[in-house]
Automatic annotation (TrEMBL):
It comes from the Bacteria. This is DUF4442 domain-containing protein. InterPro entries: DUF4442, HotDog_dom_sf. It comes from Streptomyces graminofaciens. Pfam families: DUF4442 (PF14539).
Amino acid sequence: MSADRMSIGEMLAATVPMARTLKLEFLETSAERAVVSLPDQAQYHNHVGGPHAGAMFTLGESASGAIVLAAFGDQFSRAVPLAVGAEIAYKKLAMGAVTATATLGRPAAEVVAELDAGRRPEFPVSVAIRRADGAVTGEMTIRWTLRPVDQGE
């Protein structure tokens, strides 16, 4: 499949080695929401038999990246998306497969307007990580920026 015909999940799996390694499944990717699943895999368990904290972080960050691609992919000829910070809180024991749902914390049009005005916008992406019974096991906020291509750093 050519790059312009790849889904966002296929593109991330092709370009982000950790997404492939963890066998992340991109269930939904739109400008409004991204849903990504981490299958239950014994080789990525922690000391209590659930998904390792690092695997859960990668799951949440990957969901945030998917929504950024969906919401701002049309801006990538003039700006590079970069994660600039992240916070995670582990709320409950996660066991089995877990799913991350990401949502933008600011309207995409507002972020693009800042870029149009010559500024380097920052925006949060909120992520809820849930186990199969629906309980929230983790919450993340990833701060992203769209760095104009002429502002190399």
